[in-house]
Queue: 4 jobs
Job 1
Amino acid sequence: MTNKVSIIRYDSDKSSRNSQITLQQNLFSFLLEGEKGIQYAGTGTIIKPDQFYLLSCGNCLMSEKIAAAGDRYRSMLLFFDNELLADFFSRHQIVAAVSTKKGQNEPFLVFGKDAFLTNFIDSLGLLLDSGKPLSADIQKVKLEELLLYLSARYPETIQQLRTYSYQANNDLLIREIVTANIDNTVTVEQLAFLCHMSVSTFKRRFAGIYNSSPNKWLLEKRMQKAADLLKNGKHQASEINYELGYENLSGFIQSFKKIHGITPKQYQLLN
């Protein structure tokens, strides 16, 4: 049985890219070292060590990046159930506001660290360093402390904490997801995962919308963007391949030539 709230220290010496994660609980993550990438259906962000974030339960892609060999990725994690969040709202008479403004009711919230939060993270570390199992009560107290502080510090943002449920039952969601991932090297399997669909279902629905396969459509869109960037003369292939999510230049050049018939350098000379 999953605990209603859990405090965990996470430490790794390896980078990872686009791991498929199904969060059964909401998650506060305090990044201590390294860089975190988050991608939900249709939206994503990059988290730096001077920030922390709240992720709503659901399917997402996560990437972890360390700066160089010998460095580490370190974070403090606080998982908690929706039941605890609803109870907090009820006891403190905080109503989760509904808004149509862009950027609100997102599946994640990003906060900047300050002196209080730095000390709060240190207190979590001290509790874990004690070597004794943390009781359910002490973990609930720490969650309550954090939520109370955020309520006072970010009163408007705290109202947006709500479960972000993805219902992948219409073509609009597929359009939003693939459009948002034109610049990301996500796989068809990962796109299907974000849509809560099997790969075969995703491909079938995609073909019905775009009359093309996902791989072909994404490649054409990415290489059209690359051509537009090359045409303005301000970008080199070595810059564009990184912007489009390619891990090496040769892979980008091969993809560009497949669509346009010439290399990026030849294209730039002709335009």
Note: DSSP finds eleven helices and nine strands in the chain.
Job 2
Amino acid sequence: MVEDGLILARFLHYAATTTLAGLSFFPLYAYAGGEPEAFGCWRRRLLLWTAVAALLSGLFWFALATANMSGSLDDLADAEVVWAVAHDTSFGIVWTIRMFLAVVIIGVAAWGLRSRSSSSRNFMMPFLAAALLVSLAGTGHTQIEEGWAGVLHVTSDAAHLLAASAWLGGLIPLAVILHRYIGTNLNEGAKDVDRILLRFSGMGYVAVATLIGSGLVNSWFLVGSIPGLLKTLYGQVLLAKLALFGGMLLLAVANRFWLVPSMSKIRPDATDGSAAWSARLRSHVLGEQFLGWAVLFAVSILGTMQPSVGH
């Protein structure tokens, strides 16, 4: 029961932190000028609620990790046990700092929503969200290695997390923009949407390259060999994750080289055709998001398993 809850807690926290970072990064590359105010208000509201979700899911993760270490959920009522985990373990120390950072992020997000100031060129929230996300690399399987190997593994895992958040988290505002474009609260013109799609694609190239490179490094540390990939449960779950990632890539390639060019060829006055292609693109984007969440669920399972190395 504790292990199943820990998988759920990990998934919720991964989803919240990747979304938080991706939403923060989006205006930095998606717009040549300022972010449209109506869209900015929506994004800032979602940032606040996502930050709250990151804090709550992080506390949920800590509680279940404490129960897993002590052996019983009943130990959560023992202040000495909770203090010992928070104060005397590397996980607890890192997690305490992370939860404090999550509270700071909530405050910054609430202030940004209240002030209604444009955050398209504000680097405070992206920096804080990135720090909360990459600090996950300081826990879990990256702590197996020591010395330079440990530094390389942590760095690779941090890069993996940042690339994943830029892609997955960026899909949410992209889907909203496409939804508005096809008839509900239209705020962007066809040329604006085309530019956003092309900038997102440019970011996607970097994110995918980073994911592949850092994924190979992480696999070397955690799997180590072909038999470890094929003959262990950890390797088989990793293969399932790679299959889901492959599905995301296929949808992304279809978007970039089929749907987006088709949209750009439609005459500006052909609203029906443009809306139809936009609807197809939005469906693909939502499909990418669904597969991305499935990838995060696989990662959550992998985090509770013994790596293939050494088997």
Note: The chain has two domains: 1-138, 141-311.
Job 3
Amino acid sequence: MDDEESGDTRGRILRAALDLFSARGYQRTPLREIAERLGLTKAAILYHFPAKEDLLAALVEPLMTDLEALLKAAGGLPPEQGRWAVIEGFVDTMLAHRRPLGMLFQDMALVARGPTYQRLVQFALRANEIIAGPAGDRRDRIRASQAIAMCSDPVVFFLDVPSAVLRADMLDGVHRLLDGPPAPEAPVAPRRPGRPRAMNSAQIATARRMHTTGRHSVEEIAAALGVSRATVYRHLGDE
């Protein structure tokens, strides 16, 4: 088996394993079933992955690599910039790996069996330090740990929500936690039907952050925030 064929077979095995683990769970998916789906023998699977646990580790590795790279990049930034680099980067990384995360959610006990668990713990501890800041007190550290949960749990609990919408909602929640609730809006006269809705300060900040990344259209931002495109354009024009 040459290197090119070997690499292609390994990728096919990983894709099939992810499909089956996501649908049925890791525990309920034997290696034989993965082999049968691909027209391979169980021995061929074991050639690439000597144990079933190695399959799981390989599926999770891209997520762990991205998380560790995120911490390395954010750790060299000024405290406030580093905080939001971790938070927004964490949200984006979680959304980019939604399928493996959904698979792990079905079999969370498996994570504690190998080195992946320790890597996750180390990530959480370091992310907590960056988000809380060098002068963070007990409450800052508690809010930081809450922010980390807010950036991960919804990804597996709301699989039916589009990524752009979920991203905006999660970041809005984290800003409310760390920055405090937005100031109450001034009373306004009843609006006529069809008039664009107003945006509060938190929504304006979220819209501007999404627009700055260059990854979201005005239509996507408007859908995520539940406002009209005209309303989004108006506030982006105030930048």
Note: DSSP finds 13 helices and no strands in the chain.
Job 4
Amino acid sequence: MNVRKVLLVEGCVNAIISISKLAVGLSTGSAVIVADAIHSLADLANNIFAWLAVKIAQTPADDDHPYGHQKFEQLAIFVLASLLVVVAFEVLVSAVKRFGEPVTQSKLGLIILITTVVLNIGLTLWEGYWARRLNSDLLKADASHTLSDVMTSIAVIVGWQLAALGYFWVDSVFAMIVASIIFYLAFSLFKRAIPILVDQSQFGRGELMAAIEKIPAVNTVLNVRSRDSGKGQIADVSVTVSASLSTIESHKIADSIEQVLAEKFDIQDVMVHIEPDQH
């Protein structure tokens, strides 16, 4: 089992869940169930984007992408977040337009929705297991998203049942709540993807320089830059050392810098540039 296979299985389950919810929503006239169906369709789109992104992200570095393709995974998350914003807006508009419209009861529909909740619970546990097993940030985020779908679906069922009792306005109110949840999920995904896409560092420049300056043979730290690649931190370091040092001794200093950054900050990819001190 790998990440793409997990996403493929999840996509198939989400397709079944989406179609089932949409059928129940259209047959009962419930805006909140239709909203939840659209939410599930967005999950399916997420699976498709994620599958393609993981496939590209696993492609080895080439002439056009010498640092690899890891950020395509974060790009997929950004695209998904953008899609969720559109979905949430559409759900919100639909809920306002359908405010107070009649909603019907359906025992079969209720059974179908409860079944989709059970499926999502099982999917969350299964995906969480493989996320830990494969150490995949994408699967961990997706498993959390699926868990939120469970909570959303429970709220949807409650809203629908209250509306079917004659409180028609409740259906639209719960649909608005679902839209708010989708907006929040989009915000969370943006918050996760954007820092990586814009090369934000997890560490302050000052604390990195302070750690390197403690290495005895380093005279001056000229510059330190670090960024998140999506699969770990990358750092570029420029330092000066005594001009009398041999190439071998300078190389050992570079090794020491790499070791310090790896041990203290878990930065495993470090490029060290050493210059002779002219003073």
Note: The helical segments are 3-28, 31-57, 71-97, 107-134, 137-164, 168-197, 205-213, 247-265.
